[in-house]
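Write out structure tokens for Pyrroline-5-carboxylate reductase.
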Amino acid sequence: MAGGEEVEVKPIDKEAFNLGFIGAGKLAASVAIGLVNQGILPPSRIFTAHRNPESRLDFTSVGIQVYQNNHQVAEECDVIIFSVKPQILKEVILDLRPLLSQNKLLVSLAVGHKLKALQEWAGHCRFVRVIPNTASVIGEAATVMHLGEAATVNDGELIADLFGAVGKVWKMDEKLSDAAGAVGGAGTAFASIAIEAMADGGVAAGLPREISLSLASQAFYGAAAMVMKTGKHPAQLKDQVASPGGITIAGIHELEKGAFRASMMNAVVAAAKRSHEMGQ
């Protein structure tokens, strides 16, 4: 085990633990605010640090305590979520390492960096990798998680409960993390581009922009809900709409000419490749 002899792990008290975010960016804010909005944790038990007054507002607006530095967060909290940029994650963990005892459950939201490296930097293996997305803020995130060597069953349940409160959680082998992050994480950006493009098309066809964007957004939301709730393959749902000689098949023909599906597949593969590169 990284960090020397094995020691007894102190269970996290699910009714009284403090949750800290190291890194106060948009992803951290979406998860933290989602937890408050869903009533999972009171803001009095959530902490982060940021010196920029404007960046603190997302947290302070819902009552979350914002300290001046990360050391205060690490000292105060039992569960510590690292949500800094992957490029500086190692530096941040090493700086806080003296405060990161094995009685603290550590969580990384960074893409790329694997558990082996995270555990080495922290000096112990009580680590969980979580790959969520910004839809956490509305309780609709797609989250993937991987448990470290010393993370207990209780630890896994706690993190699954936290992130399950702001979306859906899938536990899987870490070897699938790059692909899962590309679909579940970067995929929200890909979907947003598709919604924007459809709305622009509606404007080009004569719709007012606000109405077109609302229709496009609802179309994507409804399509996703039908896949999830009916269990039908997307191709089946598409075929139900695409009647012979109709408007839908005419539009699909244009998408195929533009290699829409191939472009989306290539985007996911490129994102997964970049995630893998960042972990090297």
